[in-house]
Design goal:
Largest sheet: 6 strands, mixed
Bound molecules: zinc ion
CATH superfamily of the largest domain: Zn peptidases
Number of helices: 11
CATH architecture of the largest domain: 3-Layer(aba) Sandwich
Low-confidence stretches: none
Number of domains: 2
Helix content: 25-40%
Length: 488
């Protein structure tokens, strides 16, 4: 059933009341001022002290319930920003605070855009807890970080004096499970000169594009084996190059380091006498790709158009060969599964973006792993390939470490017992092949005991993002119980 006010009658009431407000506060990564102002006002109204650090994070200090001043201080951490994406031609525009929201059965949904339940439910859950008179708790430190969805700046540059707690609950999980580990990440950037050589005057120029791919999150969806758009176009260029003389003029694809590319383009020039053979190769490659990826990318389309050859430049044969070799050597997809849990991805790499910026072709990759050395090894192999090709490699100054809590963590034991007692079932434990801020924050506090939990959120970072109402209630109940037990 779809109701008019999607939030009417939902529990916990205070959580949903605040959530209904934040859906109209724009908060893309790097533009969190409005939501910070809104939170600071809320803190002032409730007489909670608050502080900001130079990174832009805000921490709100909620005093202990009466008589519990000496209880353990607990940090509750969420991120302020959200991914702002709308479907084509939609009136929803999260970046300007306009999100159409509906209720559909057990779901609160933004049918045409992202919803910001990631991490808005976490934000409003801690607000509701802080306002609650029923929950008895020690001092609470509500830490709201900035730029999680883009650069991790908030977590990386966190001022360690912001929190005193030795235990932290990260509320950015999306599966309803207790998350005990997440992957680290290394972004590698390779720079390549743009083409400078004029193409032969009488050659024909084609623009070829690969579209209709499913893509997805480069961590969570990497195991689905979908076609990486950049890889697809590189394979095509290799096939053409094997049989037809070409000038490679342009190649581009992908939108973000952490998204599997859903499109790619190339501009190629060939002698007019070779057009027939060229078209045959495109047709056969198109069939081959469609067959190989019929399950994962049923809508993939390879198309070509002839374009004007005026002023178009190309790489020399040698540079073209080296560039294509480099792009075909860079791994993309799952590289290793966990040694002890072979159903989970341990290490992967995403060849994410290929674009011209500042007169240079930039190649951006993102390696993830739950094993620090493994992600270093993959990044090193990309560096080696770049060196062999003669490209400039730029190492990541902000590598994020994998995060894993030990099974004997006292916080985990309390969280598991709370879950069992509340819901009369075994708590599902999981690790994710995505990035959480836990590992990065823990670098500032090696002794910090951390776990991550949250409601069930689907289609995060995509139009159609939705959050389960019943799991939000369970998440809130579990969070309250863990805090109660930690405080007693
Ligand atoms: Zn998130």
């Amino acid at each position: 059933m779809i109701s008019k006010d999607p939030f009417i009658g939902l529990e916990p009431v205070v959580l949903w009341k605040h959530f209904a407000e934040i859906v109209s506060i724009p908060r893309p990564g790097g533009q969190e001022d409005a939501i910070k102002e809104w939170l600071a006002n809320w803190a002032d109204k409730n007489n909670f002290l608050h502080r900001r650090d130079n990174a832009g994070n805000i921490c709100i200090y909620v005093p202990a319930s009466k008589g519990l001043d000496n209880s353990r201080t607990i940090a509750l951490q969420t991120h302020l920003d959200m991914v702002c994406i709308s479907a084509e031609k939609s009136s929803s525009d999260p970046g300007s605070g306009k999100i159409d929201v509906i209720r559909d059965g057990d779901w609160i949904v933004a049918p045409e855009s992202t919803l910001g339940a990631d991490n808005g439910i976490g934000i409003t859950a801690v607000m509701a807890l802080a306002e609650s008179n029923d929950l008895l708790h020690g001092p609470l430190e509500l830490l709201f970080t900035v730029e999680e969805e883009t650069t991790f700046k908030g977590a990386i540059e966190l001022d360690p004096s912001m929190i005193m707690a030795d235990v932290m609950l990260n509320l950015d999980a999306e599966s309803g499970e207790l998350i005990i580990g997440s992957a680290g990440g290394i972004e590698s950037v390779i720079r390549w000169p743009v083409p400078t050589k004029p193409i032969p005057e009488d050659w024909t120029v084609f623009n070829i594009s690969l579209t209709g791919l499913c893509g997805g999150h480069s961590g969570i969806d990497i195991e689905k084996n979908r076609l990486n758009g950049i890889k697809g176009i590189v394979w095509l260029i290799q096939k053409i190059k094997d049989e037809v003389p070409i000038c490679l003029c342009e190649i581009s694809g992908g939108d973000a380091y952490n998204a599997i590319p859903i499109h790619s383009e190339t501009i190629i020039s060939i002698p007019p006498t070779e057009i027939h053979k060229f078209e045959e190769i495109i047709a056969s490659t198109s069939e081959d790709l469609a067959r190989q990826f019929s399950h994962t990318d049923p809508d993939l389309t390879l198309s070509k158009t002839i374009i004007d050859n005026l002023g178009i430049r190309c790489w020399s044969d040698e540079l073209c060969n080296r560039l294509v070799d480099l792009l075909s050597t860079i791994p993309s997809g799952v590289i290793a599964m966990e040694q002890t849990s072979p159903h989970l991805v341990e290490t992967s790499n995403n060849l994410g973006v290929l674009e011209v910026r500042d007169n240079t072709l930039g190649i951006v990759c993102f390696t993830r792993s739950s094993v620090w050395d493994a992600q270093e090894q993959v990044a090193a192999s990309i560096e080696s390939a770049s060196r062999l090709a003669g490209a400039e490699f730029i190492p990541d100054p902000n590598k994020t470490p994998p995060w894993r809590i030990p099974y004997h963590s006292s916080l985990l034991i309390i969280a598991q017992a709370s879950y069992r007692d509340l819901f009369q079932r075994e708590p599902p434990l999981a690790t994710i092949h995505g990035g959480l801020e836990c590992g990065t924050i823990q670098e500032h506090f090696p002794e910090l005991d951390v776990i991550s939990l949250g409601p069930v959120i689907q289609n995060a970072h995509k139009p159609g993002e939705r959050v389960s109402i019943s799991s939000t209630a369970e998440f809130y109940e579990l969070l309250s119980e863990i805090i109660k037990r930690l405080s007693s």
